[in-house]
Design brief:
The chain is α+β, with helices and mostly antiparallel strands and 93 residues long. Helices cover 25% and strands 37% of the residues. It contains two helices and five strands, in the order E-E-E-E-E-H-H.
Length: 93
């Protein structure tokens, strides 16, 4: 299992900083995909689709989700209501 990452925790990007306030993650066979709810210092929200290596290092490559990780990630998303709500608006008609 990957190292525990606490929430909230700080992040800093070249265009702003804030906190990761919710995170859904799953330990997959190749990596640990994560969906993060970022709350910037100005109060705006964003979604980050990312992944970590099995030893807990953040990876700066595209996130690819296979069918073998979807169910586990869905269960993790269900435990993060604000993240789930924002994701739902992404696919709403």
């Amino acid at each position: 299992m990957p190292p525990e990452r606490t929430v909230p925790r700080k992040f800093s990007l070249h265009f702003g900083s804030g906190q990761i306030v919710e995170e859904a993650e799953f330990e997959g066979p190749y990596h640990n995909p994560a969906l993060q709810l970022l709350e910037f210092d100005d109060g705006s929200l964003a979604l980050r689709f990312c992944y970590y290596s099995h030893d807990g290092r953040f990876q700066r490559s595209p996130l690819i989700l296979g069918e073998d990780t979807i169910d586990g990630l869905r269960q993790s998303i269900a435990q993060n209501p604000r993240l789930k709500s924002l994701l739902s608006s992404l696919v709403a008609d």
